[in-house]
Amino acid sequence: xxxxxxxxxxxxxxxxxxxxxxxxxxxxxxxxxxxxxxxxxxxxxxxxxxxxxxxxxxxxxxxxxxxxxxxxxxxxxxxxxxxxxxxxxxxxxxxxxxxxxxxxxxxxxxxxxxxxxxxxxxxxxxxxxxxxxxxxxxxx
Length: 140
Prior knowledge:
Blueprint: E1 2-7, E2 11-18, E3 28-33, H1 34-43, E4 49-53, H2 66-82, E5 86-89, H3 91-97, H4 100-106, H5 116-130
Parallel strand pairs: 1-4, 4-5
Antiparallel strand pairs: 1-2, 2-3
Helix pairs in contact: 1-2, 3-5
């Protein structure tokens, strides 16, 4: 099973991993611009699911990022074309569960300026645990 997870934005984090899980298997991760993210996702082959951070515009927010919504729409379209599941997860759920400590335990944590690659990995990890693609024993 091949899963891609995306933290959408002007700079997006993307993470891709093939399962079954092995402890020496690390996700491929990148930080890409908005258009690079859409182009990258549209060219991926043999995907089984796209996992994406949800984004809800809030009235009165200091900044509005249409890039996030545009990427979510483009990824939803890619999933529709390929007839694969498209899963939205909240940023809070991913950050609450997929802490830096858990990413470090798995050897996934990366020191990057924006942290977008780690945010994509948080969504990948949350989805993988929820769907039992990674055993809970990985943290024991």
